[in-house]
Amino acid sequence: MKELLKTIGHVVFKMPVGFVVTIKHLFKKPVTRDYPKHKMPMSPRYRGRHYLERYDDGTERCVCCGLCAAACPADAIYMEPEESDKGERRAQLYEINLLRCIFCGFCEEACPEEAIFLGQEYEFSDDNRNSFLWTKEDMLVPHPRQDNPFKRIIRRVRKVYGIPDKTK
Ligand code: SF4
Ligand code: SF4
């Protein structure tokens, strides 16, 4: 009898208290995001994937000088030079191993040509190790790039680092 009264007491008094807590949370704003539909805005200083810049006529800015590779603490950059049709030096092979990269941004700071920069993108996960060896073709910004969001990203990154924007 005593056990029965105890159970009835739980049902009548304690269970409604629990339900009140649950019902209160039904009307609160959720703290979780519906990713990937709703993405978290990244800080302007966030360093994501790498890009290789071009001049407005489409010429690659990178002259394969190797300074970014020398500055890279993770030894993640490898390149081989070649001469273009115009007789200019450029990278025939330019690779970044993103599994080694620590996204420090030293390559961007070391580049005298403002050729390499780290954008805002962070969605490049994969289950294949080979897909993390990025080549020049993966990183070159598209040309032409009218109405292209990449240009806005470039400007924002340069503003953060105080570098004059020559693309304006
Ligand atoms: S971000 Fe840092 S670790 Fe990554 S490639 Fe550039 S210099 Fe190397
Ligand atoms: S990205 Fe810049 S620092 Fe690196 S090789 Fe090209 S021009 Fe030189």
Throw out a few tags for this protein:
168 residues; disordered C terminus; Alpha-Beta Plaits; rod-shaped; binds iron/sulfur cluster; 5 strands; 31% helix; three-stranded antiparallel beta sheet; two-stranded antiparallel ribbon; alpha+beta
Q: Quickly give the CATH architecture of the domain at 50-161.
A: 2-Layer Sandwich
Please report which band the strand proportion falls in: under 5%, 5-15%, 15-25%, 25-35%, 35-45% or over 45%. Answer: 5-15%
Bound molecules: iron/sulfur cluster
Query: What is the oligomeric state here?
Result: single chain
State the separation between the terminal residues, measured CA to CA. Answer: 85 Å
Give the overall average pLDDT.
85
If you had to describe this structure to a student in words, what would you say it looks like?
This protein is of the alpha+beta class and 168 residues long. The chain has 5 helices and 5 strands. The protein has a domain at 50-161: Alpha-Beta Plaits (2-Layer Sandwich). It has helices at residues 2-26, 67-71, 106-110, 136-139, 149-161, and strands at residues 50-52, 77-83, 89-97, 116-118, 133-134. A 3-stranded antiparallel sheet has the order 2-3-5. Strands 1-4 form a two-stranded antiparallel sheet. The chain is rod-shaped, with a radius of gyration of 26 Å. Bound molecules: iron/sulfur cluster (2 copies). One iron/sulfur cluster (SF4) binds at residues 71-74, 76-77, 96, 101-107.
